[in-house]
């Protein structure tokens, strides 16, 4: 994603927990420089975050109890764009705190996976004021093919969590159907063809089963634990809104259970084998 920004002519100041990734990126992009610390962001017009969760977003921006977060160094009027999969209610609270500092914020999580990030074909789900979205659109266009305004601040993160809830539920039921079919003597390949030729087809059956599951590659680029986290965000949102989530609760329990026993690096498409190995999916 940063490479697409650099290719679009933007000057970048970059920071990552993996210093090797920063060094390699800067070596390949003359218009980019590595940030030695928060003060390196003192002159930026926009700060884009792509981080694992809300807690890390808040730590990066606000630091610990003594401060020392990046937000302390940002100039007034700087636009903070959180493209992480964060918790929508925490995003709203964070936006209010940033506003008190004279900073603006959008949440713009993306869908499309690693392949979409490399190809620049992501979908960005944007929450926040329309004037700030207009300001951010050129940046987002460099990384995403589709920009979907979804509502007030936090709405992008809510939409992303809900999308991944549907995706996770579809993976769960597809894997279970494939396993049941195989037990009855229908090969996974044949059952996948049935799904894709019938009303059971989905993004999972069309774009994940043969591409990442039945061939054993399990290399979609999105981890099982991150998918489980996103499902939990969706379920927590349902509770906060006092909305029923009967199916979502079951999906969350299943993904949480499997994520708790799977290797940390497990790809989310490994549910194909991990559910089978776990035996009962109740």
Order of helices and strands: HEHEEHEHEEHEHEHHHHHHH
State the helix count.
13
Low-confidence stretches: none
Mean pLDDT: 95
Instruction: Please give the share of residues in helix.
Output: 40-55%
The CATH topology of the largest domain is given as: Rossmann fold
Name of the CATH class of the largest domain: Alpha Beta
CATH superfamily descriptor of the largest domain: NAD(P)-binding Rossmann-like Domain
In total, the number of strands is 8
* CATH architectural group of the largest domain: 3-Layer(aba) Sandwich
> Biggest β-sheet: count, sense, barrel?
3 strands, parallel
Distance from N terminus to C terminus (CA atoms, Å) equals: 39 Å
**Mass-distribution shape:** globular
Bin the strand percentage: 5-15%
- Using the CA coordinates, give the radius of gyration: 20 Å
Offer a concise description of the structure:
By secondary structure, this protein is α/β, with parallel strands linked by helices. It has helices at 2-7, 19-28, 54-62, 88-100, 113-119, 130-143, 155-184, 188-196, 203-207, 209-213, 224-240, 246-261, 271-278, and strands at residues 12-14, 32-34, 46-49, 79-82, 104-107, 110-111, 122-127, 144-151.
Draw up the topology in text.
Blueprint lengths: L1 H6 L4 E3 L4 H10 L3 E3 L11 E4 L4 H9 L16 E4 L5 H13 L3 E4 L2 E2 L1 H7 L2 E6 L2 H14 E8 L3 H30 L3 H9 L6 H5 L1 H5 L10 H17 L5 H16 L9 H8 L4
Parallel strand pairs: 1-2, 3-4, 4-5, 7-8
Antiparallel strand pairs: 6-7
Helix pairs in contact: 7-11, 7-12, 7-13, 11-12
Family: Belongs to the HIBADH-related family.
Organism: Acrocarpospora pleiomorpha
Keywords: NAD, Oxidoreductase
